[in-house]
Specification:
The chain is built from five helices and nine strands; from the N terminus they run H-H-H-H-E-E-E-E-E-E-H-E-E-E. The chain is of the alpha+beta class and 193 residues long. A hairpin with a 2-residue loop joins strand 5 (126-135) and strand 6. The radius of gyration is 26 Å and the shape is elongated. The chain starts with a helix and ends with a strand. The relative contact order is 0.11.
């Protein structure tokens, strides 16, 4: 249930939008919608059957409060969450677990974000780099660039798992002083500062 302050803010925004928007703009917008519906029908596309209702709304000047309410609701909608919030540029972490399995003491895997579009670090005895970007609220990790040094054979499974799972990561969240990298909602990599 909205608080009285939230309701008052909503009503103020509706009043403000109604005062600012001239009727001409609203009629133009409704005319555009009617034209779009007409084009859809001409090309055989399924169009809504609300053309008469739109015309009546415009003729009776009832479009202004409707659009004001839509604008106010749009302004009240939450912004998309930043997928990089837990992974700031310049941040560096030491990986502590991969797929729930703790790393042995002699296995060093690091994760850093040296630039806005890059993840990089050390994985056992190799260096790696990956492009990273955002797609809405999701994280998108690109292809792998790595050195090919021969490392300890017993630690190779950790290197392989890390490289494989890092490519599947689609979200990051903070966990205490560290971070958790997720794929499909499941934690796949855990790292600490």
């Amino acid at each position: 249930m909205p608080t009285p302050l939230a309701m008052a803010a909503f009503l103020r925004s509706v009043r403000l939008v109604m005062a600012i928007l001239p009727i001409r703009c609203l009629r133009l917008f409704a005319g555009f919608l009617c034209a779009a519906i007409g084009c859809m029908r001409r090309f055989g596309l399924e169009a809504p059957r609300h053309k008469r209702i739109l015309r009546r709304i415009v003729a009776e000047d009832r479009m202004k409060p409707i659009l004001a309410a839509l604008v106010a609701l749009g302004l009240a909608a939450p912004a998309l969450a930043d997928p990089f919030a837990a992974l700031p540029v310049g941040g560096a972490w030491r990986v502590t677990a991969i797929a729930g399995e703790a790393l042995p003491a002699n296995a060093e895997i690091t994760l850093a974000r040296p630039a806005a579009d890059t993840l990089a670090g050390t994985v056992i005895c190799n260096q790696y780099s990956r492009e990273v970007s955002a797609a809405g609220e999701r994280l998108v990790v690109g292809g792998l660039t790595t050195t090919k040094m021969l490392c300890d054979v017993e630690l190779f499974k950790f290197e392989f798992s890390f490289n494989d799972l890092l490519g599947k990561v689609d979200a990051v969240r903070t966990a205490g002083t560290g971070i958790e990298l997720l794929s499909g909602g499941a934690v796949v990599i855990t790292a600490a500062k």
